[in-house]
Design brief:
Elements (H helix, E strand, L loop, with lengths): L3 E4 L6 H13 L3 E11 L5 E10 L11 E5 L5 E6 H6 L4 H22 L3 E6 L5 E6 L1
Antiparallel strand pairs: 1-5, 2-3, 3-4, 4-5, 6-7
Length: 135
Amino acid sequence: MSHYSEVAIELTDEGCLVAALSRLGFKGKMEVHWEAEPLYGYQGDARAQKAHIIIRQQHVGRAANDLGFERQADGKYRVWVSEYDQKYNKYDSAWMGKLKQAYGVEKARAEAKKKGYRVSEKKLDDGRIQLVLRR
């Protein structure tokens, strides 16, 4: 049985996190809960870890466990990902980097829209994303 590891990355905005996960291919594949719900292992066993945003195992990969994002008292999200899924389903530090990038883009987009800007984006050849703001 694979156990979960806690991954610390700075995520605080639920809407931007959901948009970032959608950007990474999980649109329509997430559950968003007001109260944290249990995560399940690959054998369908409930784990001690709970999360507010959950991607169930069938959307994660072969023999996968649920991925979870648990909102903490300080508003930051704790990411729960099993060691198995980090190693075999590629939800590793490289994937976390992509999640952070997507979250950053979504957060910048949301903040710019609040200030009245129209936002467009362009993916650069090196993988970076360029945002263009216009009034």
